[in-house]
Amino acid sequence: MEQFLSYANGRYLKVSLFLSVFLSIIYVMHEPGQPKNGGTWFGYTLGTISAVLIIWLMYFGRRKRDYFSTLGTVKGWLSAHVYLGSSLLILATLHTGFQFGLNVHTLAYALMCIAIFSGFYGAWTYVYLPIKKRENLKTISAEEYYLSIEDVDRQIIKLAKDLPESLSLMINSAIERTEIGGNLLEQLSAEDKSCLIYKDELYANVDQSGCIHLLVEELSKVTEQQRAVQLKQIIDLFGRRKKSLKILRYHIKTNVLLKLWLNIHVPVSFALLAALMAHILSVFIYW
Q1: In angstroms, rounded to a whole number, what is the distance separating the alpha carbons of residues 16 and 11?
Q2: Do 22 and 93 belong together in one domain?
Q3: How far apart are the C-alpha atoms of 124 and 81, rounded to whole Å?
Q4: Pair (28, 170) in one structural domain
Q5: Are 194 and 242 members of one domain?
Q6: pLDDT for 43-89, tens place per residue?
């Protein structure tokens, strides 16, 4: 399937490159008789183009939700959004004439840069992370992994019933205290923060590997054949459980990464729009 970055043989990449190079050449050749800034005729031209582009780029959020629109495809709009948005780094910088200060004009420029670079990250996530998600899940859905873990848990609990109380408590607590997800940082770390109770003591942050290790220690002390077989089966089941949990935690992490950038990109874009309006009004009022 055609990627949005290569849409129509890179049509919008070519448009943005032409626009950036063409206006950069004019900027170099332009001699306004004063330091280059946004107040010259060419500065106003660059500012107008940049402002129109920003407003048009903001409309993309509305366009991608308009399923009945005939104004091109969403993939085409996304391609244009990425490439023409990138060209703003050059156009808006030339508009400033490289003059910055503690004012609303520089604020608008800074917000624009944050919006663009967060957009770069968003483009990367949409290209790279879906591939990593498929590789991680393979041909099984996340829901099937959850069901698989539930089935393994039932088998483990059933096998643990005939074991000594201390071992049974540890095994059951390892299942009950398993944590998946958690707060934002825990989801992004994808680390196992589970804990278990072993010999009447709480072991915090003991992951499935730690549980398996403790069970192996207990297995080395077992002399009864039947109990040894049960422990081996439980260890094998915990090994399967560990693999499934690792896959699910990474799946959750990639989902968070796919959404996280929007929590920066969208609010900053609206802040940029407000700063842009203030920038334009201040120019017309005070200049």
Answers
A1: 9
A2: yes
A3: 14
A4: no
A5: yes
A6: 999 999 999 999 999 988 878 777 777 777 888 889 999 999 999 99
